[in-house]
Hints:
The protein is about 35% helix and about 15% strand.
Amino acid sequence: MSMGESLVNTETKAFQPKIVAFLCNWCSYAGADLAGVGRFQYPATIRTIRVPCSGRINPLYILKAMANGADGVLISGCHPGDCHYMSGNYVARRKFALIDSLLKHVGLEEGRVSFSWVSAAEGVRFAEVVKGVTERVTALGPNKGVFKVEEGGGTND
Length: 157
């Protein structure tokens, strides 16, 4: 066996999903920080993107994350009624209902996109949310590429 060959059999290697997490700066991101400071264990499957408010998340961000190879997406914000921007999480809740139906319409499996509310004081809850999302996405397996963008701009010339 040469030095360049892997000692790990890739067929037996467990699937580890890539999950993009859009976290509200004021609550969910702070909850994630608390989970880290408190050393609460959760899978290292998320790639965090901090946003000012969950209500500011454009639905195209979710589609773009899935098109670029994410196996799942987590969106988390302040609990309804506790938004730093007064009503941003109410806007987010309405958007999430529409986004969910859109994703079902385009053929994305249920469970690939998750929405949650986590406050800054809920580090344990954040860890539980990440565990749950990871379990659901792992059970679904790798993203089959419903939204894969073709090389060369994605046109069908």
